[in-house]
Amino acid sequence: MQDSEWILDLIEQYLNSARSFSDRLCRAFGQEDLLSGRRSKAIPGKGIVPGGLEFNFHGIGCRFSDGTSSVDVDFTPEGKVSGFDGWRLHAFSAENASFGGLRSHEDVESALKKLLAQGLIEPLPGSHLYRLRARGGA
Q1: 3-state secondary structure at position 69
Q2: What is the mean pLDDT of residues 47-56?
Q3: Could you tell me if residue 128 is left (phi over 0), alpha (psi between -120 and 50 degrees) or otherwise beta?
């Protein structure tokens, strides 16, 4: 499984960044949920919030940047930022060298296929995204 550690680390770093940026944006506008806040127009389509967090909603997602790191997310069918795909992971690795360095799109896609075969990730129904599979019981 050590062969898969880099991709699992990259996924974890990507998801942590996505959650952190999403939470910061929700707090800045007093919203509980990012997508609901955007749909209700409580959160504008783009802007900069105190602390320097830039955001720009697009299609089915949002791009975040704080000057030191950035992440581009697509929303899951449930409206969450808990999904990922090869392109987004590759872009995250390219734009955030401090998180482990650039990984080619081909390397990321190949690693995702291995994780899928190992049952560590699964496709999100109704989406082009994957999610980490729940581990353990309950």
Answers
A1: coil
A2: 95
A3: alpha
